[in-house]
Design goal:
200 residues; alpha/beta; Beta-carbonic Anhydrase, Chain A; five-stranded mixed beta sheet; 8 helices; binds zinc ion
């Protein structure tokens, strides 16, 4: 199971893990998941420590479930889920924890189709909304740069690219790990109609 072609510039460890996840996504897409670590025995094995192999920043959307779409089990992914993969302070620090303490080599930024946050932001831009202020403030900068975005899915992809920029700007831990080749950030998009996760 090794037919995913990835850029040679990706550090070796991150590349291995990314291949594993993309192959897992292929298993999901063809309807043949293989994940085994889904039982109480696995949980007992990891009762006092964890050894995930990648970080996934995913939307809270009920249709985007990282362990299922990447065909993974308990203890394999360090997942942060937040509406619109918006990178506020707690989200950034959660990623920093996984980078600094768990030494994970790969961060997947997983945007997706039909994202409610993108729709809401597009409907209200550039109003200062009463609700969802901190979420919206993470997304509006993408529209500040390109107000004419009409397709929500294109908007989500542009936002995912923006999230990487934000993380590199705001987090010294993430920036240093990327600079040293200890962390690779893979910007991805989940297509609801096919189930496929693709690299942006
Ligand atoms: Zn979403």
């Amino acid at each position: 199971m090794d037919n995913v072609n990835l850029n040679d510039e990706i550090p070796i460890k991150a590349k291995e893990e990314l291949k594993k996840l993309l192959n897992g996504n292929r298993n999901f897409v063809i309807g043949k998941p293989t994940a085994k670590n889904m039982c109480l025995d696995t949980l007992k094995k990891y009762a006092f420590h964890q050894e995930p192999f990648a970080i996934v920043l995913s939307c809270s959307d009920s249709r985007v479930v990282p362990e299922i779409i990447f065909d993974c089990g308990i203890g394999e992914l360090f997942v942060i889920r937040v509406a619109g993969i918006t990178a506020g302070p707690n989200v950034i620090e959660s990623i920093e924890y996984a980078v600094k303490k768990l030494k994970l080599p790969l961060l997947i930024l997983l945007g997706h189709d039909d994202c409610g946050v993108m729709k809401y932001a597009k409907e209200h831009y550039p109003e200062e909304t009463e609700d969802f202020k901190s979420i919206i403030s993470c997304v509006y900068p993408v529209l500040d740069k390109n107000e004419d975005i009409n397709c929500h899915n294109y908007f989500a992809k542009q936002h995912t690219i923006w999230v990487e920029e934000v993380l590199l700007q705001k987090s010294k831990i993430i920036r240093c790990a990327v600079d040293k080749g200890e962390l690779y950030i893979a910007k991805c998009h989940f297509d609801h109609s096919t189930g496929i996760v693709s690299l942006i």
